[in-house]
Model the fold of this input.
Amino acid sequence: VLGLNSPSVECGVFAMAMMAIVPAHLMRSVGGGYDNESVAMTAMCSTFYLWVRSLRDERSSWLGILTALAYFNMVAAWGGYVFVLNLIGLHAAALVAGGRFSTKVYRAYSLFYVIGTFLAIQIPVVGWAPLKSLEQLGPCAVFLAYQLLQVAEIVKGKKEMTRLEVLKLRVRIFAVAGVASVLLIMAVAPKGYFGPISSRVRGLFVQHTKTGNPLVDSVAEHQAASTRAYFQYLHHICSLAPIGYLMVMGNLSDSSSFLLVWGLAAYYFSHRMVRLILLTAPIGCTLAGVAAGRLFAWCLRQFWDSLEASNTGRASAQADEAKRASSKAKKGKKAPGSGPTPSDSFDSLREAVDGALSSSEGVIAKRTAACLILLLGYILGVNFSNYCWKLSVDLSNPTIIVKARLRDGRVIKLD
Done:
């Protein structure tokens, strides 16, 4: 079974199965709820997939170009492209904060931002907003910071510098750039260069009834989401996604860390505006797919262990036992009066647990647990599928109904 840092068949299969029927996605992809988001969700998922894929290894950074093309599709489809742009920018900044900045990350983000922004400004309704709107300048600042970090890396490569010297070099470069940026902002801000934050975006950070836009304030979809709303549109994914989130935290990489940033951002914005529960569908299904796929693969492994594997395990256990005996003999020569260390206690506990799980009783217990998990998973899966099927019928009904009066006085309903 493949790990989280490589394509995982079982996780992908479960994620696709959930995404295909989850109500949070169906509400914008069936008759009666068809809107720009129905097209944009595919563009958004494509952009995020290609961004994650571009961070896999050094040879993948060129995929930043394809990420930019998918982002261009997103810009042309829906105004929610601002979320996509800022989320990738936020992840790029998080990689720097986590000490993961590298030439690979620099190339991928630079290709994405330069080409993506150039294509975005070709859309008439967008224009120069990516370089003027306050809600889109964050990723631009990250792009400029990446250029400064790369300059520091180039200088570091030409000179033998200690970590402290590299840190001082970065501080000097950013100090000079910071002063230049402040002067530039002071020069262009009074001329009205920067555009205001839109009322819809402002509603994500202030109370939705105080955005200043009567239309935004009055629409029910712009109200805060409740726990009931999450369960209504995500159902059992609400329980599985946090488990998958913890699993990803235990297998961090440049790529998988994006799921953590995406999960937090999607939950925050959907909590602020119930309409944006739509954004939780892909990441919720992805994290739930990780959890379900890992558990399913573990259950199957309990029955796939062959006799040969058991024999190999016994031989390995015997070798480990010999090593432990040798190690204990060496530890026995410690100075008198010195007690066991915490590491010794932990090793002993781990050996005891491994021994118990490797015994015949332990194998039976694991297989019993696997059967129970598979049975529970089947019951929850059938329940989830039936729920999505029933809710899809309600989501397919027309939601816009207008009363009209004919010439003879009869009142009819137009949907």
In short: The beta strands are 402-405, 411-414. DSSP finds 18 helices and two strands in the chain.
